[in-house]
Amino acid sequence: MKKQEQPSLIWFNGNVEPWENATVHVWSELATRGANIFEGIRCYQQKDGSHALISLEQHLNRLFSALKILRIASPFTKEELKAGIIDLINALKLEGHIYVRPTVYVEKGRYGEGYGEVKNGAYIVAFPVERSPSIQEGIKCCVSSWRRMNDLSMSPLLKAGAAYQSFKLPMIDALNGGYDEAILLNDKGLVAETTGATIFMVRNGQVITPPISAGILESITRSNCINLLRSHFKIQVVERDIPRTELYWADEIFLTGTLAELTPVLSIDKIDIGNGAVGPITQKLQTTYLGICEGRKEDTFNWLTLL
């Protein structure tokens, strides 16, 4: 994803405001401890020029599930945040595909609801996002020496702003080594996920992906792709542990995520995956998935919320 220009508008605590009006003090819990829960949602431009949000309900449900775990009370309901997302997109009048990030944050109250004075807020950011050339060309990955946090420290199920600092060192190492992305192992030495996407492997016609218990985000894009593979393509998908070495034996590997969409992996640790090109299962899954998202294929799964 290329660096984006600053949006002109932001949804901030109930209203669409000029970007510069959205301020929180530097001594807030948001600034000092990264106390927030966020979601990343794609809004796809359809073939007729309109827009549609993908898996909106699932994203908001995951947001509120994470807020529950961290004892952060949202000052806005799911319906109010949904209306805020739509109001902001309509006000910005953006062209092309859009990335939307609703965030609920803590301004005051270190330990959350029920433990002293608490003040929370919410904001929504939306900006156009170009499709990465990596979607077609594929990427090079390495297996990082840094491990994915497990559920007994900061749960990978939570999209908490502070937790994403744990991906900084793996990405620095990957970029310094000439790679595009880092694959993280969990505390058992098994494959977890990358710094921003879940991972799938194809071996002998079977698609394999680590289970949620491997220490990964309960990815909505991952779930959509599993449903598409099983229901549309009738391809067996197995959720099981994957040792590092097995990655090198894969016929195909691809990543899934809101920003990654469906990204092919061509090599890991300078070892070609398959023949080092985008594989046939990856290709047809990507074509169908993006076709549904962009309104070029029928949305039989009811993923899209049309605006």
Word description of this protein:
Helix content is 26%, strand content 30%. It has helices spanning 29-33, 56-69, 78-92, 134-137, 168-176, 220-232, 244-249, 280-293; strands at 9-12, 15-18, 36-38, 41-45, 51-54, 98-108, 119-128, 139-147, 181-185, 191-194, 198-203, 206-209, 237-239, 252-257, 261-268, 271-272, 304-306. The longest helix has 15 residues, at 78-92. The model has no long low-confidence stretch (mean pLDDT 96). It catalyses: L-isoleucine + 2-oxoglutarate = (S)-3-methyl-2-oxopentanoate + L-glutamate; L-leucine + 2-oxoglutarate = 4-methyl-2-oxopentanoate + L-glutamate; L-valine + 2-oxoglutarate = 3-methyl-2-oxobutanoate + L-glutamate.
Put the structure in a nutshell.
It catalyses: L-isoleucine + 2-oxoglutarate = (S)-3-methyl-2-oxopentanoate + L-glutamate; L-leucine + 2-oxoglutarate = 4-methyl-2-oxopentanoate + L-glutamate; L-valine + 2-oxoglutarate = 3-methyl-2-oxobutanoate + L-glutamate. With 307 residues, this protein is α+β, with helices and mostly antiparallel strands.
